[in-house]
């Protein structure tokens, strides 16, 4: 048993009853008191359907209006909430529903059919969010959390093998919110914009911050750079969480303007970022905080703090105040696997043995500089070993994408008699771009050591990505096979 | 076993190496990096003397310069630190040293003699702070905390029976700091002034906030209103923790001036406060946050938040975000014992059975209004029952002290044939004040119901207080006995 804390939404409804909890981008507002009441109504409905403390329920929905209240209702009901990625196929969904032993599936109306297909052979009761009874009358709900109790399960992307369900306790989410506040400070007027899906930990963690801090969030259905800029310039948004491609779109849309003074933080996660992009952001007075984190760490576990943001461009900063982060290497600047530990780190995957190691092995490679700043290099399993040298695809991809006309690049190792492995590049080009390999090779000459330069280039229509939109490098070669078949 | 977090001072030394950790009021500064290095040196010295993880060590010192580093050194050494009140007699100190099974006693130079007297019959090794070797060389120290491990022990005032040692874990102190930040916000430029002794939880908790937040504190030897005003007006202090008598002295010294805009919080603890004083503070733009807390709650557990400070004058606010607070009563406005629960609440007194109740019974009486705001009324055991009515000495004292010429007032119950008990007043008057009981009685007519008005008045030179400077009402009658003997 862990420490007990009162239900965070009850607390905010008591302390800040009339403060806006959630503002939809269309202007609709719900206060903390209204959100508490709505969430409790839904929880009573869940109880009526048979959901009990510890029942596994799943949610399949885009960022719909009803989702935040449903997420809080799950905690009032004491359910374990499995958050499903809406990009998954019915077969993938079925795997997760079965693996997680889900008893109830709740969907948005638009995903009802997909849910039915996924759950058809499983002992699961399915309802749309609208079908949860709202007139069930009061019943006993959970009014405090044991920080050691499991609240959510989210499946990791599973670029290899079957996906695994990361179990998050209330304490994991709470500590994640707290350590972020200790890093960024906490101002009365803070407002965080949610443009990431709530079924990923990056979006979900903002909803948690809202109830832990008593902070207003603006909540968007889908990413829209125009609406985001309006929210920042006109509605007082101080924080936005994004991934690289979103930052690029925001910058393109911004033109020559600069962000207003009140804007405190552009939290940038989801992998290595090209340096030129960070420099462009700095010119536009966008305080980009590069972060490092993953589902298992309940979002960011390391963040580049404001005072070092420009001095350490490209770094993911240092571990948050309650976190520890090691690089499995002998000395500074040496690359090794990144190991983490802290109260925001998930202790276990569902139905798998818990590890008895003190630190969680992330599978990511990185190094620390002499001041302890982390630089994330790549995934362990994506490293190319060429003539005894370690070659990191992410580094090559970053350089390739800065070549005019290249939209995105993927790099993986292919067998080579002399070197063992060599890098192969897969490029997506802008329309009407003429490919000139010689120019690219000249471009790379002073940017990459010889052994890092691709031996072969493939122009492809798109790169293989998983449901979390992450590049799956091991599927790059098959892309060429397919391509060949087509020719 | 609880969650593990890295040593907070190591963390600040890494994140904010050159930020001022502590500024003495004479201008001397120590950065987080310097404080870490100094504290580790002392910890190596403690190890050299034989202090191991779990060893009980005691500190007897005023707010000396060396004390903060010693407190942090104790955590690096993994010791359990017993903080002794410097106002105690050698016999009282001896009781605590023996009861807490202390093995090492560390004192300031000025209290060396008192320490020796206290420990002379005990198996205790005593050193002055200066005698701890600083050249012991590195040794293994604690680099992370288990939040469930005990860090400090502080004896409760013990107005009845023997004092008991409140055991605080690292988690108690950490959660106390966190819940205060969630309540007040956390700004980069925050600076908290310490004018309370570090051996009380009110002062100690500020030192904890400094290392948990990475916040600068200004640290004073003794209370001095002139230096405090300078710190606020000239050195950017944003927060001060005080008790009532200190606030009065600050207001008297302030004259017609108002506090600067950057000043965010005057945290006021230590018992009921006369309303006129709060009104005077409001006029001077002093944001007074009335709080409720005690050693067992690791400082504040309820605080009146900024938005309600004026609307709810006299209230101690609502429980902090991770805390729960109940009044053992049937309905709003009904007085009952205050019960609390939360991760900042100590679980146990040393060498006593842990309570199996979910909530800690504070022994304080209070009520909540319809919005859940707490009003602290008095100590359970000080209540006077007069003709079946509950009479609260604190309420009467508050009115008596607002009478011209009265410096302070103490009220207790005395036996009465007709009513069972009736209130008796003990007043300390300003010099050259002529006592006129009739005027006082007229003054009270519209302020207190008849059954609350004192039946008898005693003018005394001072009120009996314990080592924590709290009024000991049960000793008021003996004061008159002594007084009689003297006559």
TrEMBL record, chains A, B:
Which residues does the UniProt record annotate as the domain AMP-dependent synthetase/ligase?
A: 9-350
Q: Name one GO biological process term.
A: menaquinone biosynthetic process
For the AMP-binding enzyme C-terminal domain, which residue ranges apply? 395-470
Pathway participation: Quinol/quinone metabolism; 1,4-dihydroxy-2-naphthoate biosynthesis; 1,4-dihydroxy-2-naphthoate from chorismate: step 5/7; Quinol/quinone metabolism; menaquinone biosynthesis
Question: Could you name the domain of life of the organism this protein comes from?
Answer: Bacteria
Any one GO MF annotation of this record: o-succinylbenzoate-CoA ligase activity
Matching entries from Pfam families are given as: AMP-binding (PF00501), AMP-binding_C (PF13193)
**Keywords for this protein:** ATP-binding, Ligase, Menaquinone biosynthesis, Nucleotide-binding
Q: What EC number(s) would the UniProt record show?
A: 6.2.1.26
Into which family does the record put it? Belongs to the ATP-dependent AMP-binding enzyme family. MenE subfamily.
What is the documented function of this protein? Answer: Converts 2-succinylbenzoate (OSB) to 2-succinylbenzoyl-CoA (OSB-CoA).
* Alphabetized HAMAP family for the sequence: MenE
Under the heading NCBIfam families, the entry gives: menE (TIGR01923), PRK03640.1 (NF002966)
Which PANTHER family did the record assign? Answer: LONG-CHAIN-FATTY-ACID--COA LIGASE, NONRIBOSOMAL PEPTIDE SYNTHASE PES1 (EUROFUNG)-RELATED
Protein name stated in the entry:
2-succinylbenzoate--CoA ligase
Lineage, opening ranks: Bacteria, Bacillati, Bacillota, Bacilli, Bacillales
